[in-house]
Amino acid sequence: VQGSREFHPEDTVIKLRHTTIGGDTGLTMMSGPCSVESEEHVKAMASVAKEGGATVLRGGAFKPRTSPYTFQGLGVDGLKYLREAADEQGMDMITEVMDEEHLDVVLEYTDVLQIGARNMQNFSLLKAVGKVDKPVLLKRGMSASIDDLLNAAEYIAAGGNHQIILSERGIRSFDSKYTRNLFDVSAMPVLKKLTHYPLIADPSHAEGHWDLVTPMALSAVAAGADGIVVEIHDNPEKALSDGPQALKPDTYLEMTRKAFALADTL
Ligand code: PEP
Ligand code: MN
Asked: Which residues form a coiled coil (predicted)?
């Protein structure tokens, strides 16, 4: 098993133009809006993201929305705006590829491919990104076990792409009245023990409520995550997706200060 520490004891370190992820390279911050909403908005959010110490700008251009009647993303225009915003700030870029049909165009723009929770076991998509020479951030499916996640990663590795980043983003549980998902903090040290891949924790999608994001981001740092991916928005009430979990700039800057300070003590 290529993802196993037994096969490959040293940490995998992923190097991008502005970022290194994993190993002893320190905490990686990935931040940005859930969706790219406009050129102007994503550029403003990129500046906030950078101020908080993020080196990777996130934003969805092709969105996997629960309802087909909600905002589906700006598509290729969104990719362009996110690329420009990242370049303007000297940041790397991550965005989701939802299907094989869009893989080539997403690859034209992005530095890191994101495979969403809903696609964690889309084996044809996993095989397709396994043949690509760019890092892949693989999110844990909402009802996937740790072994399911590791097997999904194995599909990517089997194709020859070893630049894999795992992401815990919360799993379905029974208390979704208070938290969107159950943030599986205990999976983090387990994953770090079993695999050599970097781990990026996503407290935004785990919690669904902005006020739970900072404590859970800090819990992930304490649990050994190599980085955090977090959604930000200057006007969450008007956000086109995932507004309730978005951190406003001030809260975001406070969170990142605490997260980097905590990481320094570990
Ligand atoms: C996202 O990152 O905006 C997203 C849709 O995440 P997930 O696949 O974890 O739900
Ligand atoms: Mn989102």
From this structure: none
